[in-house]
Every structure is written in C-alpha cells, then in structure tokens.
Design goal:
The complex is a heterotrimer of chains A (254), B (286) and C (355). Chain A is α/β, with parallel strands linked by helices. Chain A has 9 helices and 10 strands. The longest helix of chain A has 13 residues. Chain B contains 11 helices and 2 strands. In chain B, helix 2 runs parallel beside helix 4. Classes of the chains: A alpha/beta (254), B mainly alpha (286), C mainly alpha (355).
Chain lengths: 254, 286, 355
C-alpha cells in the first residue's frame, strides 16, 4: 500500500547548523509511529516541517501522494492532517463549547459565513456535543478554559486536533506535564482512536510510546538512528546508549 | 551642481537631527520594550527648555545640557509613574503616550504661547564656511559633527562594551539575561534615559534651523517612526542609514519638487514594508 | 500584540455568549438581557428631540456617529485583536467621498452617495491591507508590533497629505465645506438638522445590527479565535490572513459610513479628518469603552462628546490637554473600560447576585 505520508530527504539548516539532515521515512495508513530522541535531536524541527510551520532547506513531503512541502499550515489541515501542541494551545478566554465550535468549523464551509450566528447553529452544536462526548469533556462544556485543570486542558488540546476529522494526527508530546494517571488515560485514548486515524507522535514518556506505537523511530543529531517495533527498540543497545548518555531516566517532561 | 552641495549639507544636518530622534526612539523601544509615541512631544519640550535657558542666561551649551537633563528626569518619572505598570502591553503604551503628547503640546502652548520661536545659534557657530564659490553655514556643519559624535559613541557602546553585549542579550531573551546575574535593570534604565535625553539634545540643536512651535512634535514623530522602519530596528547603523535616506530624500525633494516632496518619505516607507519588512539593516524580527 | 485587559472574564460578552445557564435558557436570555435595554434606549433616543433643545439633539447625533466610528474600529481591535492606529483613513475617505460626490460630481441622491462612499472606502482598505498585513504576522511577538502601528498611523497621514495636495478635488488644506444635508428622494420631505437626527439614528441602528450579526456569526467567532491564538487557528484550517484582511475591510466600510454621516452632519471635511488626530478619537473610544464589549465604544462616545462639549464651553484652549488626559486616565484608572462596568452592573441587576 502507498504510504499516507512520505518524507523524502528532508534537511533543515539553521545558519550553518543542520538541525535535521537528510531524513526519509513513510507512514502507512492506520499506523502508529512514535518519534523519540534526546533533547535537541531535531524532533520538533522535523515535526514543524511536517505541520508546515517550517519550510525545509531540502527534500520534500508527500501526503496522500501529493507534494505538500510548500503547502501552508491551514491547507494541510484541509487535506486531512491535524496537529496538537506541546505547549497547550487553546482559546483560554472562551468556554470549552466555544473552543470546540471554533475547532469544528475550521474545515467546514460555513466558516466564512458573516450572517449566521454560530451559537444558535443546531448542526454545529450537535457536532460539538459529539466531539466533547467522545472526549469526555461534555460535562465541562460551559467552563472557561483558563479555569480548567491542566489535565483537562491537555484533553481538550487533543480534542481540538480531532475536530477536523483528520486522517493523519500529529501529536507533539501529548502527555507533556501530566501525572502518571492522567498520562495513562491519554495513552488509552490515543490507542482507542480507531484504525481510520494514522498517528505520528513525538514523545518522551516511554509508557506512552510503548503503549501506543507500533513502530518507533529514534532521531539522533538530526538523523534517523534506528527504526523498529517496540520490542526491537527496547532491545536495541544503541537506544539505551543514546538515551542513557543524555538522560538519567525516561522522564516524561519536555 | 554647486547648489546641490549646499542642499546636501542641509539634508545631512537634517538627517542627523532625525538620527538623534530615531536613535533615542529605538533605544527606548529596543531596550525597555517601551513604545514611546510621546518622543516627538519630548523633543519639543527639550527645545523649549533650552530656549528658556538661552533667554535667561544666554548660554547655548548650558541650554543643551539642561534640555538633556530635564528630559532624562521626565523620562524617569514617565517610566516609574506610568510605563512600569504597562510592561509588555504595547497598544496600551501607545495609547498612554499619545495622550501624554497631546497634554504636553497643550501645556507647552499654555506656558510659552502658540507662536513659533526662533533662536540664534551661538556666535561662534554663526557665519559660513567659504569653499570655492560656495558658502556652507557653520552651524549645520556643527550639527553634523555632533551627530557623528553621538553615532560613534552609540556604535562603540553597541559593539565594543559590556553594556552593548548586555543590551543585545536582553533584546534576545530578557529573562535569560536577568537570570545570568547581570544587572539588566540598571543598564536598561540608563540606556532608556539616554534615549530620551537624546530627544532633548536634538530639540535644542535643531531649534536654530527648524524653529520651534508647540505642535511640531507630531510631524517629527512621524518622520522618526519612518526612519526606524526604513532603517530597521536593533542596529545603530540601520537607524543612521534610515535617517540619511529620509533626511536627504526630504530635503532634496523639497528643494527640487516641493509639491510632491511630502510623499517621498511615505512612499519609500510603504515600499520598504512590502519588500523588506525588517528594514534596510535590521535584525529579523521573526 | 499585547492583549487587551482581560482580568474580568465575567464581564466579557465573548465569554458570556457561551455561558447560557439552565435558567437563562428557559427565558431567552438575549430577549431580556439584550433586547430590553436596546429597545428602551432606542425609544428614548427616538423621542428625545421632542423634549430637548436642538443643540442637545445635535450632540446626540454626534454621539451616535462617533459611537459607530468607535465600534467599527472595535471589530478589528476588540474581536480580531488588530490594533489599527489609522482608522480615520476610512472615516475620512468616506466623508471626503461624500463631499466630493456632492460638491464636485453633483450627485444629490443620499443613498447613492452613501453607496459610492462605501465602495471607495472598501477599495482603499483593500489596497492598504496588503502592506499592513505584510507586517502583522502570527502569534505574539512574531512581528515587531511597532511596525503595524507605524504602518497604520502612516496610512492616515499619507491620505491627509494627499487631501492637502490634490487641491482642486479636495479643497486643499481648508478642505471641503458646504456639504448640505440632502433630501431623501422618495421620502418626500426636506432634510433639516432635526430630521437628519432620525436619518443618523436609522443608519447607525442598521449598522449596529449588521455589525452585531457579523461578530456573532461563524466568521465573527473565527476572529475571536485569531485574537486569542492565531497559530492554533491556522492548525485548525483557518486562512487567518484572509480573515484579518477581510475584517480590516469590513471595519473600514463601517468607519466610512460614520464618515459620510459626519460629513453631512458638520457640512465640512478637513484633512485632519483623515489624520492621526481623528484616529486618536476612535481608539480613545475603543479603549475607554472597552475592547471586550460590543457596545463599549458607544458608551465612551457619549462620555467623549459630552466632555468635548463642556470643554468647548468653558475651557476651549485647554481641549488638547483634556483630550490627552482622557487617554491617560482611561489606561491608568479604568483599563478594562466603561463597557465592562456597565455590563457587570446590568448583570447584577438582572440576576440579583454579584456578577
């Protein structure tokens, strides 16, 4: 089967420094791929190239066979990609409901409608209910986001990424800053997303990685050091060297 | 051709006045993150303080120092009474300082009257240098000299001193610089005051050639802002280049095509925004 | 850009719109809480000229015109988070277009003039929007915020210089005068100052209604989202540039309507109506009224026109001092704006409990 996302020879240079050097890989539809690596390995840079925040110095990115290397952030979302943010990125002064409404209409035709009221739109409200119920946030729908607990904000962070009904979900440290219990909850939620959604995620939290991923890719000094299944990665001595050399534990902080 | 040389000197001296204003403005913005739209009003106030001193004791040099000191004091009050509470709120700072400039212009008019005041340059600096068949007013040469001196001083501070390093580091990452144990607060406050004092120096230096009237601040502020954008923020050489371009463009424009000259600065400004939003020599603001 | 004051989410209509409590859903909240005061104020304003001397009703006309001017700026400042400092450009283009069409072109149909002035302002906004949003990028601090401020200030100044320079058309530095109030074709009566009051009322009410619909529409909520978090909006699929650009044009159009009303109201247009002095009025209204309420600038406009009138009676020479002091007072003492106070007070009255 053709890969859903194909990365060919991506390099990113900052000044003279190569943050990512000639990286190529592909993701099959329905696959769960985790991107790991020590701090400064180039994970976030690579991620930003995939989401369109950053244009690579060389190489190209294909999504569903289409070259999206130069496509804008919002155009990628319309093609079927969605992302979450490592640093929670919500609409803090709005309620959970309004957050969901704004997220849901981002890829819908009505988003340019200047006449029709958003709050009174029954179809949109039904969609909001669907989204919030499936992510267990419905009870909190009238809460202002800035007043929510951090764990709930992280949940909403992922819920907003799901609003566009993406085929490919790019998650940036989804469990960043969460307690063990909350992190386990997020792990289950991502695992249960269903096979229609392909997932690529950056993660430090190894419980999350091994709980979700089918394949793990280790990035080191901007290059792919190794790729394998969870078991292969666990057994690979190089992974231990790279990780142990830079970090004492497989901590969960960013 | 000979006329062009004289116009060139006029343009150059005007450029240096603009440079003093724009450098002061950039310093306050770059170092303290303060968008001081009252900078033009401060220029005018400095000029009037200077004029008052000249009228009382007839000492141009003392007037220049008084203008600088008076503005530094005002800058200090401005910061501690108002701007400190508006840290990082740029639109709010803009609203505050716009309000203050209206107030300042009106108070100046109240105290000194609405009419334009003309002052003479000190006697040593009157007269003209005769080169070939041309005569260059000494006072304008003097302004260029002072301007060059300030440019050299600021350039030296920027590139060669510890202060310059601290300021540059602070512009990149304030928290980090503070956490390195550097007394960023002291350095930035002094540089902020220096920036405002420069407006006073510009005011009194410019008085003999531009004349002084209460509402002149608006127009000068606008030109200052254009100089900052055209030159780019973050480097003193950018500000100088911007001031040169705008000063010469304006002066030559007025000399040769007085009707359309008004627009030259604005049109250049728009072109720069479209083509090179970070200015001619500016740090990338992204 | 720096955020507008947000300490009071309870007083924020944009939050409140989503917080329909179970009680409020039984009685449509909008009907009592919004409809009632709107209706009462509308009736009062309509009946006012019967009881007050004509100079007071002309002040009320001015309040309505400035209120519209401030609220049009609030569409981009308060909702989309774009603090434009050159809004007078659109006010002035609208007013000048009206004056030129009447005096130089010889059109005497008010509605046609209004329509053409709106088109003129929209075209100007569409052109200026390109350089403006070249320097207004994504997220806080992405682009030096000063650049956008400067660009917008410069727009107004450039246009006012154009107005001074193109003397045969615009009247040069003395501007246009003798823009007479026009009879409304088909309505069969002569336009007087007294009747102009009702025309202003009618047009302002229509504009407020349309603006209210816009800011609460799908599009309007997208603007709120861009204000709060532009980066996320892009990730959600929004072409945020297009939203900012179009909202800038929409705000310009409503600003130009205020300008047209103003031109016929005072029967003159001067270059300063395009310049910073006039832009400053608009953002004083927005800041004083509050960026977080829809009606705030209208309230501020009542205060502003009142103060301006009193100053013209007692302290005409000190007006700039008072004008400037209003900025300073607002930003240092009531940074959240009058609109928020009124909203809180009204909520308390309505619900019987502290807001």
């Amino acid at each position: 089967m053709a890969p859903l996302l194909e990365v060919k020879g991506i390099s990113v240079h900052f000044g003279g420094l190569a943050a990512v050097g000639n990286v190529s890989f592909g993701i099959e539809p329905g696959e769960r791929l985790a991107l790991i690596g020590p701090n400064g390995a180039g994970k976030t840079t690579l991620f930003n190239v995939l989401t369109g925040q950053l244009k690579p110095s060389a190489g190209s990115v294909y999504f569903k066979g289409q070259d999206i290397t130069r496509a804008s952030v919002f155009a990628r979302t319309h093609l079927g990609m969605a992302r979450s943010f490592q640093i929670t990125s919500l609409f803090p002064y709005q309620t959970v409901r309004v957050n969901a409404l704004i997220a849901l209409q981002g890829t819908r035709k009505g988003r340019y409608n200047v006449v029709r009221g958003l709050m009174g739109d029954k179809q949109m409200q039904a969609a909001v209910q669907g989204l919030l119920e499936s992510t267990d946030l419905w009870e909190l729908r009238e809460e202002v986001v800035s007043s929510l607990a951090y764990g709930q904000q992280r949940k909403l962070e992922i819920a907003l990424s799901l609003a566009s009904d993406p085929e490919l979900l790019l998650l940036d440290e989804p469990s960043c800053g969460l307690t063990t219990a909350e992190s386990a909850d997020i792990t289950t939620r991502i695992r249960d997303l269903g096979s229609k959604i392909t997932v690529l995620m950056i993660a430090h939290d190894m419980d999350l990685v091994f709980g979700v991923a089918e394949r793990v890719m280790l990035l080191h000094y901007g290059q792919i050091a190794c790729v394998g299944t969870c078991d292969e990665i666990r057994a690979n001595p190089m992974v231990r060297d790279i990780y142990m050399g830079t970090r004492k534990t497989f901590g969960s902080n960013g | 051709m000979s006329q062009a040389l004289v116009t060139g000197l006029n343009g150059l001296s005007y450029s240096f006045i603009l440079f003093l204003l724009a450098a002061g403005f950039s310093l306050t913005f770059g170092v303290m993150g303060v968008l001081n739209l009252a900078h033009g009003a401060l220029f005018v106030f400095g000029a009037y303080v200077g004029l008052q001193v000249i009228e009382t004791v007839n000492a141009f040099w003392l007037a220049t120092i008084s203008a600088a000191v008076a503005l530094a004091v005002i800058g200090f009050l401005l910061y501690y009474l108002f701007l400190k509470r508006l840290y990082n709120k740029v639109p709010e700072q803009a609203v505050l300082t716009i309000g203050l400039s209206y107030m300042a212009a009106n108070v100046i008019q109240w105290v000194w009257g609405p009419r334009a005041q003309i002052t003479q340059a000190p006697e040593i600096l009157t007269g003209a240098l005769k080169v070939g068949g041309l005569s260059f007013p000494i006072y304008r040469v003097f302004i260029c000299g002072v301007g060059l001196l300030v440019l050299a001083l600021l350039w030296w501070i920027q590139d060669r001193t510890r202060w310059g390093a601290i300021i540059r580091a602070g512009m990149d990452n304030k928290e980090m610089t503070v956490s390195l144990g550097v007394n960023y607060g002291l350095v930035s406050t002094l540089v902020f005051l220096l920036g405002i004092a420069l407006a006073g120096v510009a005011g009194i230096l410019g008085a003999p050639i531009t004349g002084v009237y209460p509402t002149m601040g608006d127009n000068l502020l606008l030109l200052t802002l254009i100089v900052v954008v055209v030159g780019g923020t973050g480097y003193i050489q950018g500000t100088m280049l911007g001031a040169l371009v705008i000063g010469l463009l304006d002066t030559f424009g007025k000399a040769y095509v007085p009707k359309t000259a008004l627009f030259f600065a604005y049109i250049l400004f728009l072109i720069i925004l479209l083509v090179r939003p970070s200015g001619l020599i500016g740090r990338k603001v992204f | 850009m720096g955020d507008s004051p947000r300490e009071l989410p309870a007083g924020d209509t944009r939050v409140a719109d989503g917080t329909a409590t179970s009680l409020a859903r039984k009685i449509p909240r909008s009907l009592v809480e919004i409809g009632l005061p709107v209706l009462v104020i509308a009736v009062i304003v309509l009946l006012l000229p019967l009881f007050i001397p004509s100079f007071v009703s002309s002040l009320v006309s001015k309040m309505m015109i400035y209120g519209l001017f401030g609220m049009s700026l609030n569409i981009i400042w308060g909702y989309a988070g774009i603090p434009s400092f050159g809004h007078a450009a659109f006010f002035g283009v609208g007013g000048y277009a009206a004056g030129i069409l009447f005096l130089k072109v010889g059109i005497s149909n008010f509605w046609l003039i209004l329509l053409l002035a709106i088109v003129a302002a929209a075209v100007v906004a569409a052109i200026l929007g390109f350089p403006a949003f070249r320097v207004f990028g994504v997220g806080a601090g992405a682009v030096n915020p000063i650049y956008f401020l400067l660009a917008t200030i410069a727009f107004g100044e450039i246009l006012s210089r154009v107005a001074i320079a193109v003397r045969p058309v615009t009247g040069g530095s003395t501007g246009l005068s003798g823009i007479k109030k026009l009879d409304l074709a088909g309505f069969g009566f002569r336009m007087t100052s007294g009747r102009y009051y009702y025309l202003v009322f009618f047009i302002v009410v229509v504009c407020l209604f349309v603006m209210y619909r816009v800011v609460n529409s799908h599009y309007g909520y997208a603007l709120r989202g861009i204000h709060d978090n532009e980066r996320r909006m892009q990730a959600l699929g929004y072409n945020t540039w297009l939203y900012k650009y179009t909202s800038w044009i929409i705000a310009g159009v409503f600003g130009s309507v205020a300008g047209v009303l103003f031109a016929f109201f005072g029967s003159t247009m001067i270059p300063n109506n395009l310049a910073m002095v006039t832009s400053d009025i608009a953002f004083l209204l927005v800041i004083m009224g509050s960026t977080t309420t829809f009606f705030g600038p209208l309230v501020a406009s009542v205060v502003y026109v009142g103060v301006e009138y009193l100053a013209s009676l007692y302290l005409p020479d000190r007006w700039p001092l008072i004008f400037g002091a209003m900025f300073v007072f607002t930003i240092m003492v009531i940074p959240q704006g009058l609109g928020v106070f009124i909203l809180k007070w009204w909520r308390r009255l309505f619900s019987g409990s502290p807001a």
